[in-house]
Amino acid sequence: MFSLSADEVESRIKRILVEDAYLDLPVDSIRASDGLAVDLGLDSLGFTELRVQCERQFATKIPDEQFNSVRFHSVGSVRDLILELHR
Q1: CATH architecture for segment(s) 6-85
Q2: For every one of its 87 residues, what pLDDT tens digit does the chain have, with 9 covering 90 and above?
Q3: Does the global pTM surpass 0.70?
C-alpha cells in the first residue's frame, strides 16, 4: 500500500529536481504548476534523471508510454502520475 500523501510526493519530486537533476533553485521556490522545461529549464538528461529517481524513490516503474511531454509537463503532472501508478 502506498502511504504517501500528494504533498509528500510533490515534496520528494522537488527534492529530486534540486538534488539529482541539479536545478540551481531553492526547493521551496518550486511550485506544482511550474513547467519542467519552460519554467525550470530541465533538459533531456534532467528528464531522464527525474524518471529514474522517481522510480527509485517511489518503488514504481514508469511505463515508456507515460514518459511523455504531457505526463512530465510540470511538477504537479509528475506528482499525479506517481499517485495514479500507486492506485
Answers
A1: Orthogonal Bundle (1.10)
A2: 678 999 999 999 999 999 999 999 999 999 999 999 999 999 999 999 999 999 999 999 999 999 999 999 999 999 999 999 998
A3: yes
